[in-house]
Amino acid sequence: MFAESNTGGSMVKSTLRTVKKVKVLTERAMQSKAERAAPVSSYAKAGLVHMVGKFDKLEEQLAKFTGQEGGHARDDRADAFAWPIYLYVIPKRRNAGAAGRQRGMEDAAAEE
Asked: Distance between CA atoms of 56 and 43, rounded to whole angstroms?
């Protein structure tokens, strides 16, 4: 499970643990919802993000999301949708090429 820790993160952790013993990862938001959503939106437009199931309320929020300040409760589902993709998918895809190039350089140096 994942929870943003800026507002109520510890409360979310303790509440979840009263129901079931699960590992809860937390992250403090250092950027705005719009900054987190921008790369996720690009991935979605490129067809790299897929939802399985029917999520009417989420889709409604995603369609209306503007990234304007003050959208705290208004954008809760959209932000919850963007967080895991922003944290776990985007950094890996950004670094994949650089890691491959670095590994290739190391291999070439070992051969010399």
From this structure: 20
pLDDT tens digits for 18-29? Answer: 888 888 888 888
pLDDT in tens, 61-97: 999 888 777 655 678 888 889 998 998 888 876 655 5
Which residue from 79, 96, 95, 92 is spatially nearest to 27, judged by alpha carbons? Answer: 79
Contact 9, 26 (CB under 8 A): yes
Contact 66, 19 (CB under 8 A): no
Largest CA distance in the chain: 59
CA 110 to CA 112: how far, in whole Å?
Answer: 5
Look at the pTM and tell me if it is higher than 0.70: no
